[in-house]
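User: two proteins, same treatment. go.

Assistant:
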Amino acid sequence: MRAREVLRPSSEHDLICTAYLPAKTPYTCSLDGIQCSSGCTLGKLSIKLIDGSSEDMKFIFEDRRDGRKLEVRIRKGVAGRIEEVSAAEGMDEAARSVEEEDLWNLLEERQYL
């Protein structure tokens, strides 16, 4: 995961993630990916969910040791396109369309070092 690559935490317990997204499925499914890829988990209390807008979704990863942060934001319009495909063709097709897209067309990042 990009957060581990950029922040290089010395321990899986040093990395935390605050997710700003709607507190409902399918948006919260992204937390499954965060857990798998970053090592931040709900069980370790290293993920915090803040209920937010689907058009302003972001994940802020922080190294607890030194306070360095990486913000990964869903690009404007992406959530709306996913919602349109989901409504017209179903969630499976919406997921497939995201998987086929280049990652940097979906996300943008900012580092706070």
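Protein 2:
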Amino acid sequence: MLVNDNGRILDANQAACDLLGYESADVLGRALEDGAPTTIEFDTILEESRTLDAATGELEFGGETRSATFTAVADITIGEHLLVISEDRKH
């Protein structure tokens, strides 16, 4: 998904919408923290991705046993950041 400097979602594919629990029409403009993983700290992720060229980590979803990993790349264009979240699947 693409997010802006304020953590608002600019674009998201269907897999991201499914992971966040929203319909695609409802996700655009929403703050990433709204209903997103409870452990996400967008400012920290953004700063780390700017410092290290990318950030990675794990996310826990509140009230659910699902977990996910993410990779973030800051400023793919000015003020727009790429956040790739993958749900960890246990077999």
